[in-house]
């Protein structure tokens, strides 16, 4: 199940999007917010998998909200939903999964949700691979009499390798 929050300052826009999203059995709208501050609080209290985000709002706009969520490492997958096509490039600069122009069509929404599903599956596969790698390292250390964990865990992200202390890893999450 994909838990989602809809953030838009216009109630009719939230109603329409909730109606369209309800056609997807695996997407559950767990909350709605009319402003960025309320959305930020909702995400902090119970992080969703997906945020449908209007880019233009009077208080704490969509891009500012994304910035605040990045600061606290709580950014869910984002689909930007707006009436302004000039935000398209900026949406992808903040790693939005998709960009929908209002009024949102059912087919276009279906494509966007399919992209979210794909990213979630990729994230889960990456998490499982990381868990398996950690288990293999622990097994290897136990077989070879090593009582300590390896000093670093290497994770490939794009064309870079990031090094972590395995003790700092609580769960895996792959970001594109």
Question: How would you sum up this structure, described in words?
Answer:
The strands form 2 sheets. The protein has a 5-stranded parallel sheet, sandwiched between helices. It has a two-stranded antiparallel sheet with strand order 6-7. The chain has 176 residues and is α/β, with parallel strands linked by helices. The mean pLDDT is 81. The chain is 43% helix and 21% strand. It has 5 helices and 7 strands; from the N terminus they run βαβαβαβαβαββ. α3 (62-71) links the parallel β3 and β4 (77-82). The chain starts with a strand and ends in a 12-residue tail after the last strand.
* H and E string: EHEHEHEHEHEE
Count the beta strands.
7
The largest beta-sheet arranges its strands as 2-1-3-4-5
**How much strand?**
15-25%
Class per helix and strand makeup: alpha/beta
Mean pLDDT: 81
Helix tally?
5
The percent of residues in helical segments reads: 40-55%
List unreliable stretches of 5+ residues: none
Rg (CA only): 19 Å
Largest sheet: 5 strands, parallel
Question: Which shape, going by the Cα principal axes?
Answer: elongated
CA(first)-CA(last) distance? 21 Å
Features:
two-stranded antiparallel sheet, alpha/beta, elongated, 176 residues
